[in-house]
Amino acid sequence: MTAVSGDTFRVSEMTWQEIDTALKQTQTLLVPVGSTEQHGHHMPLGVDVYMPEAIGERVADQVPALLAPPIWYGVSPHHTFKPGTFTVSTDTFQQYVFEICASAAEWGIENVLLLNGHYLAQDPELEIVVRELRTKCDIQAFHVPLVNLFADVAEEIRTGEVSFHASEFETSIMLELFPEFVHMDRATNVEPPAESLSLTDYDALGENKVGWSLTAKDMEALTPAGNIGDPTVATKQKGKALVEAAVSDICLLIDDLQKDN
What we know:
Helix content: 40-55%
Order of helices and strands: HEHEHEHEHEHHEH
Number of domains: 1
């Protein structure tokens, strides 16, 4: 499949007439969902939005899809121990995301992919939003946490033992997408406790068997820098592999959605 014809696929850059024309080619909307929160000494607060928006852009450049403006504010109470972090309540966040997607259904969107850059922490909220969109708005909605898309590749290429927040995976992706925002000379390795509770793990690919979360007090005790894990082993090459895995999987889903239309 090819991308939407025209000068752009970004909703924010299009006129309503251009949207109307684009809807004849696709009824799929990519919605980058992230947060504005601390990412250690070496990366900016916008990481969780920069990643899904850039990945969405690469997807929409290959297959028919529209790219919505990103959602910058998420559920991040555990990061408020550092300045610059914004957070909203679960109820506010879910209602906001739901209403954005529901309004898109009013003008012809049938498929919504919530590209979640604040994965793991924000997964429970978006799973509920997807269910509500499907039951109340008759939208084919999907929660797309980036880590699930690149997990297999990440397991193969990782060199650090722990990558939980602002570490090997996120830093590598940012080196591929926005190297100008990454300050590797400031990156520091922050090792979590050697032991965690049974069925939990301080790693994005860890053996987590039960739901759990960290508070701001927990995070402050775990990391003076803000990251958990080792960002110093991140590379642009790793980031390229992770991004390509995510883009490829999303394109596969959109191709299937196009066939159903």
